[in-house]
Amino acid sequence: MGKLIVSLSPHAHGTDTVERNMYGVIIALMPALLVSFFYFGIGSAIVCATSVAACVLFEWAINKFMLRNERTTICDGSAVLTGLLLGFNLPSNLPIWIIIIGALFAIGVGKMTYGGLGNNLFNPALVGRAALLVAFPAQMTSWPQAGQWMSYLDAETGATPLAIMKQAIKNGDASVLEELPQSLHMLIGFSTNSGYGAGSLGEVCALALLLGLAYMLWKKIITWHIPVSIIGTVFVLATIMHVANPVYADPVSVIFSGGLMLGAIFMATDYVTSPMTAKGQLIYGVAIGVLTIVIRNWGAYPEGMSFAILIMNAFTPLINNYVKPKRFGEVPANK
Q: CA angle 309-310-314, nearest 5°?
């Protein structure tokens, strides 16, 4: 039996820090951010800048005046990351005052209410998005078409791929799916029917998100378990449903549409709100994939990714307890 060796200090320390991981994810988001600037122009700049600034301001103010913490936490990158992810989940024509309310919910309710970074039960950016979707459903489901670089509040809106899929299911008419952009165009953000796609800032170009995934895997910021289990589950279920009834969209279109890629890569993988073990992450990812398909096809909203992640965030402590490793040196009860 091997020995546990305990040596005197100094000890070697790893380079993994909160700041490194947070800024690493922010770097991974840069391709998607640049693409959103290219497709939505001034609208994307206003939404993202407002969201980031408001999240940083609220975290500083709550820390300073409500929690009375002497140590500031706005430099660790977590507030900036929350602001970016919240902005990526919003339409490019959302009024500034609504964005600020979303940031307040994200930081004040989703994060600081639990005691700050490391204590929150739910993904803060998704808490902000869910609050806005309930409070302002009309504004949150009005999606400007990309390509209107100088338009903000007066941008022309259009149907998203998810809305088209939902309409096909509702009408029981598979011909409606002919309005969907080709899968290749959904990958890079272009639509053959309207010139450009419509949707939130972070969901119009799957390729940019995949580049971010490759970077995070390379830097070992995340592991493959959660993204692959979510995308794989959705692909399998969407394939079965499409083969059984062509009124359901093909699996590639399902994966590249809406916020599935954004959620699977950047939100479900949040350290605090996802399981700690590889087995737990696979269970978590499969459950998110199943819930996403159920909500998208039979729920009230076309998109189900955000709600699926929030639901499974609540189950993360239970999953951690179920798959926790055995304690070192523990003697089995039957011996």
A: 110
